[in-house]
């Protein structure tokens, strides 16, 4: 076999270029594969950051007001937060628990009623034909037991994964809250000395924007939850408390959250007929109008800087990679991306300081 050194110069140069191209391609594929494999972990890290950022901000505020060390201020903030959550849980948990049990009992009736309502239209009958008549269908035919066992195993596995993710997020947030400078200095040390001041500025900007986005989102969630509870209670919709809680929590997901929140409310409203469902639909449209046009522009300005089409595209792409977790974390991930684009590309690469960050 002929050695590369024995080839003519033109052929040797061609072989070298082919090897370089193949090597770059394999490296790119390897990086993409590693990012895909570690994407869920990166999103969990971002979730931990979202928990740590407001806690550290509250600790800094307490430290400025009391002149206590930040460590003591963080401990006080943590104790106040835990006490507040325990107090709210003590007051609200019994009612929510009772409504959750009632939801479990009423859900089959709600689904059967929705099926009957759909069967009254031609397109509804076509949709119903694709849905099993009852849960007993799972056990029909060969392998029914295996399918049921598979579903049970899936539920158990999903529950374990959820608690594992919460465990990881909790301790990540705890470590980030305890020693934030350690991790900031570690990230900055990866940057060449000439760019470290710029890197600290970018990290500070990301911290401020994430805090503003998160506080605005929490305010929006609270307002949506309160308005949903008041409206559903006035309309006499069953389980208004748990439906409003679900609407508040799902508001964390922009664009898709309001649609998902509407589905269970409509199903329960259908128990009182199509007219009640129309009232509930009008209620949720009105709430989203207030939230989108009044609340968000006032308290969530950073999210207004993101074009809605870009946000929806990011949700679909990230959701395709990481499922539900990707949908949940798409908005804060896009907030970080916008800061990086504006600072690293627009301001520093293009030297355009007219764009505000």
Automatic annotation (TrEMBL):
This is AI-2E family transporter. Coiled coil: none annotated. The keyword DNA-binding does not apply. It is found in: Membrane. Pfam families: AI-2E_transport (PF01594). InterPro entries: AI-2E-like (IPR002549). One of its GO terms (biological process) is transmembrane transport. PANTHER family: TRANSMEMBRANE PROTEIN, TRANSPORT PROTEIN YDBI-RELATED. The chain crosses the membrane at residues 20-53, 74-93, 166-190, 210-230, 242-270, 277-296, 316-341. It comes from Spirosoma sordidisoli. Keywords: Membrane, Transmembrane, Transmembrane helix. The keyword Phosphoprotein does not apply. It is a multi-pass membrane protein. Its main location: membrane. GO terms for cellular component: membrane. Belongs to the autoinducer-2 exporter (AI-2E) (TC 2.A.86) family.
